[in-house]
């Protein structure tokens, strides 16, 4: 079948507002106006101004009212605990109404914020939907972040409540969440009124009288009383959620997502990009703490009337590298979305795909990869093993959905290895040089998107309009800066080559090396430091820290290195995967004092590099090479 992509993309270019008006017809609105976009509102305009809606209604009620009450809406499969559960749309709505009643009893109303700190359990999705039902703005914090990171988010979002589980479970260990929350509340200036804790069997939490409540008990009471909560009407432009993501400093950016544009874009993507029919099972093997989890575990599949999967496990080790195939065959998954790192992990354990052959995957139609560069070797292995289209697509927390991809629903375009293919409607993607001039085909430069941005993309940062402008709009007037560098070829295919800032990508998780440097700098023996991302076969990149110690420090360098590793784990969390700290005598710098992080990375990755013309002392590069070698990193 010839792809309809070019025709559809052109139809958006010819009439962008008409395109998004048609797409909006897929959503049930409380009220609409003739105005699809107001260029004068917000930082670059706002989508569907004055339209009214409720995201939870669109995810649940309308499917219960119109033909899907008994269809599974959410399947929970937890190889790590051996548990599973399934909720129909009707059952999920009942749970969410009970949840919303509990939140309302604690005084949460439209516009209030709630932080959700939960592992991959159904209650995490219920919490998000219950907030959406009330117009409460949720902010999910990934369980792998430490108390300090949680405290930063509490102070920025100033939530009325924290919704949590008593624990998360990682292979071989139970992580008690409550002490982390208590510590975070201790550290934060803002103090939430309430903490609602879902007590898990694996480890219950001690509750502080007055502030903490047993969520399960309260929900049981609300359910038994048959409490219902009508969806609260919000404006399309009202925030649905805040999701914090790494910026260039330790202070994360609060990406704001609106209600209306978000629903429209996600709904469009389910048919046209992912080629999924309502009623099918869609599985995003990510975590609700990340944007992929927000969009494609919680909201998009439910908006589309699909069954979504909540998977609490790992691609390997729970119990083996066949777990993805078991889940796909057991639950009739039509499409899987995950990060390439998960496939690298599976391939390492089961290079010949022997475990794949054990399962019936005849229902399985496509694999989507995002979150980091999909290396052609991994993509080709997946195609060979699974015999389905494997689609790389590029997006960011900021956008909430795909910027560049290969739209299976419009007909797959030819694949060019290493390229996530072409821009989705709504995105006019260009490559500019540092002075903002357009670059020709196949020339590396800054990837930008011409304003206005399409529905779902962040309108601003939470309580930080100026930071939003400075971070994204100031450098290239009229464009959104993606902070990715890349090329567009003569056929309009994009390739992402690198970040232009200090963000690194570790196992599909976005991390700031600047944030890690801020932590290392707090160690009393450290005079200065630098963190770089070095290539890793499994996780894509790994952070590697260099520290110059203050003069006169006579303690064992090995001990200090261990302390530095521990410090990052304590302050940022295990998710930073910070395991390499190296003490050195000096850091390589330019004559003006800028640390040559790029050259250090090239050395660590064994790439050939040009001696920077402005380097102060070339001999330091040899010292870095030796230090890396002595820590087992072959350069
Ligand atoms: N709560 C607490 N700790 C967590 C956690 C959570 N929710 N998630 C991860 N961690 C911990 C891990 O236990 C690990 O701790 P350790 O240093 O004690 O081993 C550390 O954080 C690093 O985790 P991770 O990077 O996930 O490494 P891993 O070795 O546990 O697993 C993969 C490697 C490849 C299997 C795993 O990263 C993976 O499944 N990646 C998919 C990525 C993904 O879903 N990305 C989302 C975008 S699509
Ligand atoms: P996050 O906001 O965590 O989704 O991370 C977004 C960043 O991850 C992007 O800016 C890219 O640097 C990287 N990224 C995401 N998807 C891809 C992809 N398909 N190919 C290359 N890089 C990607």
UniProtKB/TrEMBL annotation:
InterPro entries: ACAS_N, AMP-bd_C, AMP-bd_C_sf, AMP-binding_CS, AMP-dep_synth/lig_dom, ANL_N_sf. GO terms for molecular function: acetate-CoA ligase activity; propionate-CoA ligase activity. The keyword Transport does not apply. Residues 516-594 form the AMP-binding enzyme C-terminal domain. This is Acetyl-coenzyme A synthetase. It comes from the Bacteria. Its EC number is 6.2.1.1.
């Amino acid at each position: 079948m010839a792809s309809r992509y070019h025709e559809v993309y052109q139809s958006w270019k010819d009439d962008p507002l008409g395109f998004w008006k048609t797409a909006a017809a897929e959503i049930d609105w409380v009220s609409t106006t003739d105005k699809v976009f107001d260029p004068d509102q917000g930082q670059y305009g706002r989508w569907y101004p004055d339209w009214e809606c409720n995201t939870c209604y669109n995810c649940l009620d309308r499917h219960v009212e119109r033909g899907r009450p008994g269809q599974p809406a959410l399947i929970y499969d937890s190889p790590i605990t051996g548990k599973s559960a399934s909720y129909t749309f009707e059952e999920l709505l009942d749970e969410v109404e009970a949840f919303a009643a509990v939140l309302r009893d604690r005084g949460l109303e439209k516009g209030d914020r709630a932080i959700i700190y939960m592992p991959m359990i159904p209650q995490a999705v219920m919490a998000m939907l219950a907030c959406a039902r009330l117009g409460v703005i949720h902010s999910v914090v990934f369980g792998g972040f430490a108390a300090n990171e949680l405290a930063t988010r509490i102070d920025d979002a100033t939530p009325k409540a924290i919704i949590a589980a008593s624990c998360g479970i990682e292979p071989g260990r139970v992580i008690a969440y409550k002490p982390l929350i208590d510590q975070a509340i201790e550290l934060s200036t803002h103090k939430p009124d309430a903490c609602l804790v879902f007590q898990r069997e694996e480890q219950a939490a001690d509750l502080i009288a007055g502030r903490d409540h047993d969520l399960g008990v309260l929900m049981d009471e609300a359910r038994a009383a048959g409490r219902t909560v009508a969806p609260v009407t919000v404006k399309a432009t009202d925030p649905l959620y805040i999701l914090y993501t790494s910026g260039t400093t330790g202070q994360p950016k609060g990406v704001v997502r609106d209600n209306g544009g978000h629903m429209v874009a996600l709904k469009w993507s389910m048919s046209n990009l992912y080629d999924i029919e309502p009623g099918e099972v869609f599985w995003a093997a990510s975590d609700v703490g990340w944007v992929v989890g927000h969009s494609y575990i919680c909201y998009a599949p439910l908006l589309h009337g699909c069954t979504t999967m909540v998977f609490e496990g790992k691609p390997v080790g729970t119990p083996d590298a066949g777990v993805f195939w078991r889940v796909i065959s057991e639950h009739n998954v039509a499409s899987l979305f995950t990060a390439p790192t998960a496939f690298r992990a599976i391939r390492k354990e089961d290079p010949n795909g022997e475990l794949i052959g054990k399962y019936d995957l005849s229902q399985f139609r496509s694999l989507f990869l995002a979150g980091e560069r999909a290396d052609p070797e991994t993509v080709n292995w997946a195609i060979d093993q699974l015999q389905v289209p494997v689609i790389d697509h590029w997006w960011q927390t900021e956008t909430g959905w795909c910027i560049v991809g290969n739209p299976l629903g419009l007909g797959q375009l030819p694949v060019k290895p290493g390229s996530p293919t072409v821009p989705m409607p709504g995105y006019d993607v260009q490559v500019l040089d540092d002075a903002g001039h357009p670059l020709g085909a196949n020339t590396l430069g800054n990837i930008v998107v011409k304003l206005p941005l399409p529905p779902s993309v962040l309108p601003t940062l939470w309580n930080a309009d100026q930071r939003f402008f400075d971070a994204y709009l100031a450098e290239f007037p009229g464009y959104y800066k993606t902070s990715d560098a890349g090329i567009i070829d003569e056929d309009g295919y994009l390739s992402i080559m690198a970040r232009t800032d200090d963000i690194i990508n570790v196992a599909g998780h976005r991390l700031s090396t600047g944030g890690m440097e801020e932590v290392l700098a707090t160690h009393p023996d450290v005079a200065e430091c630098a963190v770089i991302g070095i290539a890793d076969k499994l996780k894509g990149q790994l952070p590697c820290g260099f520290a110059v110690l203050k003069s006169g420090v006579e303690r064992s360098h090995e001990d200090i290195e261990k302390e530095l590793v521990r410090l990052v784990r304590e302050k940022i969390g295990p998710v930073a995967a910070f395991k390499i700290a190296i003490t050195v005598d000096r850091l390589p710098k330019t004559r003006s004092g800028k640390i040559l992080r790029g050259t250090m990375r090239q050395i660590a990755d064994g790439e050939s590099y040009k001696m920077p013309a402005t380097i102060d002392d070339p001999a330091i590069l040899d010292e870095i090479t030796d230090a890396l070698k002595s820590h087992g990193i072959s350069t």
